[in-house]
Amino acid sequence: MLQPPVPALPASVDFQGKTVLVTGGNSGLGRAACLHYLQHNVSTLIFTVRRASEGESIRAELLALPELRSETKILVYELNLSSHSSVIAFASKLRAEVEDLHIALLNAGIFHLDWEVSPHTGNEMTFQVNYLSNAMLALLLFPLLRATAERTNPPTPSYLSIVASQKYSESRFIKSPIPETTPIFKACNDKEEFQPWSLYADSKLLVRLFVKELAKHVDPSTVIVNCMCPGMVKTNLARDLSFPLRVLGRIVQALMARSPDVGSRVLINAAGFAGKESHGEMLVVYQILPMIAWAESKEGEQMQVKLWRETVAEVKKDAPGTLDAALLH
Ligand SMILES: NC(=O)c1ccc[n+]([C@@H]2O[C@H](COP(=O)([O-])OP(=O)(O)OC[C@H]3O[C@@H](n4cnc5c(N)ncnc54)[C@H](OP(=O)(O)O)[C@@H]3O)[C@@H](O)[C@H]2O)c1
Q: Which one of the listed residues 200, 212, 234, 306 is annotated catalytic?
């Protein structure tokens, strides 16, 4: 099954004067997104890596691009999404060192089939990295994104965009919803109920519901909150799978997958030039993908509100005093 083509980025897309953050900028879609922002005149590109030495060598490569304008700034920060203290330290460093943030593209993520627990938080790793840390980061960066939009003349919304996946619709939590009395975080950390092939979809369902709920607390005239699915893209996302599964994945990718250059155009659309109609939505190939019916059902709505409460409580516990009052209305 072939994927539809992704049109080239419009020539009018121009990030001059903008400061853009891309998490997971060393590899795959994140790295390709960094190149697009640079090719479209971004003034300050900030990308994150897990290893400082790798970040510096990538920064040097980017600075050597022939098309780079001499005034372009490229900054690299360390961020490890398996640790709340790393997320909190990164967000406060960014807020202290960067005056403006027009676009936050939260891209970093993993695809695991094995049960693994973060040694830092005790949470299951895919839930921790793909959902909880990204949600925390979104909440911690929101004040800077909003303040930047309010300072911009003429008024222009900032973007808070999270890389999601259409696979969210395959989550086990849709087929067998988490009981009302069970916390979502507890369900995600229940090794007895763990289903390897649902792990990734579960984490992306949480991302999808979080974006839908966050959008309700945010005025899209200041910050557009959205997510996107780049389709199947040839990257190293499946690097932790067994050898036979990786070989199979490579064959499927060779037949069907987009290149990171093409797939990342979907990221740039969401986190760069999509309109206010994308607020709370998921974008695929420059279009909004309608929410699955379950998410609009009573069960879906309940899970969304419960997820929001648990996430906000986690941020209040681990990073007290950092949440923007506007988010809590
Ligand atoms: N490829 C696809 O077909 C596809 C489809 C739909 C959605 N996505 C989503 O696209 C995003 C990017 O994935 P990709 O396909 O480009 O894969 P990738 O090449 O493996 O990139 C993943 C990025 O996330 C970073 N990362 C992983 N664990 C991290 C952690 N604990 N802390 C901080 N950074 C971490 C990686 O850094 P290291 O190099 O240090 O591990 C890397 O930069 C993910 O959110 C993924 O779910 C991908």
A: 200
